[in-house]
Amino acid sequence: MTDTTMFVALGRFAARRRHWVAVAAVAFAVFAGVWGTGVFGSLTGGAGFDDPNSDSVAADKILKGPLGRHAPDVVVLYDAGTRTVDDPGVAASIRRAVDAVPRTGVADLRTFWSTGDPAFVSRDRRATYVTVRFASGDDQERVQALKRIEPAFSAPGTTVRFGGVTSMTEQVNARASRDVARAESVSMPLLAVLLVVVFGSLVAASLPLAVGGLVALGSFAVLRAVTFFTDVSTFSINVVTILGLGLAIDYGLLMVTRFRDELRADPGDLDGAVARTVATAGRTVAVSGLLVAVSFAGLTIFPSRFLGSMGYAGAAVVVFAVAGSLTVLPALLRFAGHRVNALRVPLPRTRRPGERWYRAAHLVMRRPLLSTVGLVAVLLALGAPFLGVNWARPGDWVLPANADARVVTRELGDRFAADPARQITAVVEGTGDRAALDAYTRRLAGVPGVRSAAVTGTRGEQARISLGYAFDPMSREAARTVKELRATPPPPGTKALFTGMPASRVDIVHMIGARVPWMLAFVALVTFLVLFAAFGSVVLPVKAMLLNLLSLSAAFGAIKLVFQDGWLSGVLGFTPVGAVDADFPVLIVAIAFGLAVDYEVFLLARIREERARAADPAEAIAAAVRRTATVISSAALLMVVVVAGFLASGILFMQVIGVGLILAVVVDATVVRGLLVPAAMRLLGEWAWWSPGRRSPRAAAPPAVPESPPARP
Fold first, then answer.
1. Cβ distance 282 to 584 under 8 Å?
2. Coil, helix or strand for 367?
3. pLDDT at 227 > cutoff 90
4. Gene3D superfamilies given for it (predicted)?
5. pLDDT value at position 81?
6. Residue 6, pLDDT score
7. Domain 403-505: assigned CATH number
8. Residue 428 is inside which H or E element, if any?
9. CA atoms of 85 and 90, how far apart (whole Å)
10. Which of 93, 133, 169, 450 has a CA positioned 20 to 30 A from the CA of residue 177?
11. 313-363: per-residue pLDDT in tens?
């Protein structure tokens, strides 16, 4: 059985057994709504940005043992306004609040009054802070512990703010969930309106949206199932569910458009129209979905929980979106039948975009070499700023400037002698020689950027050295300091490991830089094999991957200019910190590369069909561009709407995802797919379809779709 025959059989099954398919879809929707939403309580993996194989994580594991941690998890800042902490009323209010804080799960709580340390009071004596260290070594358990005791810190007559790593994590979690919910509440109605505009019919518009809603709901069940096999990052649900919705609508758009074309060609055979739709558009959906899933699977190469779980969950959701598009949607198409064009909405007639792209394709194909070189040069120039990127890891800087965690960090830097949360911890193993340990501590204190160094704990042959610093942990200075600390030789026969935000940042960036080539190689290999199997050419897969990288290049150049250099920071409402989070461009690569291959498969499938009609090669390319322009442009527009809500988020990495994906999708759907692909295909000519052993490119023509059998009496 050929793959085309298999898709025809799938389409006929969905059409003839549409009632059973509909019942199964409704049952699954109920199941996903009840059981699947339990995923919100199953995401216990934390953010998971760290590399579990790094030195910083190894040090953290040791600090969870008898040696213990020293750096505070929470810094509670009290601001007395015009009064001072020396005022008996202010002091009594703060001390009563602190004394009432439950100590369950709290390993250490320190104040100015318990330590007598003047560093706990601001220079103007109008503010003071309290440090809290929890007993748990798990970040999400610490977040829950903070939630339990947070209300108790309220002190009348003062403004209370919460900073530190645990507070930052809590604030990011809360704001991200709220922002995603708000984005979905805006995007769903807008998607419905745009689908009506695209199709001009309420019935046609409702079909992709129905499948998209089912996939979005089903994403919860898929994510919860994944949690039984691996820890899933708490941030995965923010991205994966929206991606599933966007892909389902993209695939639905392609399928419904093709079904309407098939109905116009043969109005009397509804089952056949569904079968041919699945055999053509459905086959394209299957190929493109497989490639998007492969892009996500490439993330599993990274050992960090965030990227790895995003890979598992993303691939699973994409496969579910494809399955829904190939089963539920054909059944709905058969239910709709000729009514797919019913409930038309009167809209002003405009020139179809396909005609404009048809003329543009012919224009660039007149001088294909000049067009190809010129477009490639423009895209490379747009990506050039990315060469100067400064990589970072998530910290309180991802929050809005007025968020508690950022305000506390800023206040501690401006008004206090030191920020107690800015510590690098050195764990030394294998020494009981205090003199040698003290000498090593003095050498660490001499490293540029270190403002204080002290042995803060020993246990057997393990020792803990706390190093204070004042620089931005995401700066290049921080990376240099960590490098010099690790290069400082510890006492003979011992091993030193460093942890803390700067060290973790260095380890994460190193991990991503080391694994990205392997991810790209894996995705490239599987993409090549899938596209070769789909189109029988060894040239087309290489061309597709190179052009996809060009569209990513332009998006990444913009990411660096916007988020590191601060372009449009006023419009987007964030304060640039001179760095870009290393995790999220990798995630953008996985999503955007998959979507780019998605659009590439849409276009190449049509080019192959046009070639099979014995059209002139240039005319076949231009005709395919015209036939797919509306679908690709609409799919890109709808995907932009899906992720546009991220731009309004108060979380910086959500905005990075929004800007990166929007630019990558727009550039790919217009410049690359509408101009560069036609120019490159014309430049390659017949060589585009070349494969070893193939004498004629005509062999690349798609197999014929079997005609519908006579209707049974």
1. no
2. coil
3. no
4. Multidrug efflux transporter AcrB transmembrane domain
5. 92
6. 86
7. 3.30.70.100
8. strand 423-429
9. 6
10. 133
11. 888 888 888 999 999 999 999 998 888 888 777 766 655 667 889 999 999
Alpha carbon of residue 297 to chain centroid: 13
C-alpha neighbours within 13 Å on the C-beta side of residue 368: 14
Residue with tokens 């009632």: 19
SS (H, E, C) 657-676: HHHHHHHHHHHHHHHHHHHH
pLDDT for 130 equals 96
> What's the rounded Cα separation, in Å, for the pair 420 and 358?
63
Q: CA-based Rg of the chain, rounded to a whole angstrom?
A: 29
CA dihedral sign of residues 169, 172, 178, 181: negative
CATH number for the 3-48+170-393+506-691 domain, one of 3.40.50.1010, 3.40.50.150, 1.20.1640.10, 1.10.10.10? 1.20.1640.10
The residue among 106, 114, 167 whose CA lies nearest residue 133 is 106
Q: Are 619 and 582 in contact (CB under 8 A)?
A: no
For residue 647 the two structure tokens come to: 């731009």
* Pairing state between β 391-392 and 580-581: parallel
pLDDT in tens, 640-688: 888 887 887 888 888 898 899 999 999 998 999 899 999 999 999 888 8
Query: Which secondary-structure segment (H or E) carries 459?
Result: strand 450-459
d(CA 623, CA 607): 8
pLDDT at position 2 over 70: no
Residues 187/641, Cβ–Cβ less than 8 Å: yes
The strand order across the sheet containing 74-79 reads 106-110, 127-134, 74-79, 159-163
Contact call for residues 657 and 584 (beta carbons, < 8 A): yes
Mean pLDDT, residues 287-295 taken together: 85
* Domain 3-48+170-393+506-691 identical in fold to domain 403-505: no
Phi and psi angles of residue 138, each rounded to the nearest 5 degrees, phi first: -95, 130
Q: How many CB atoms lie within 10 A of CB 531?
A: 24
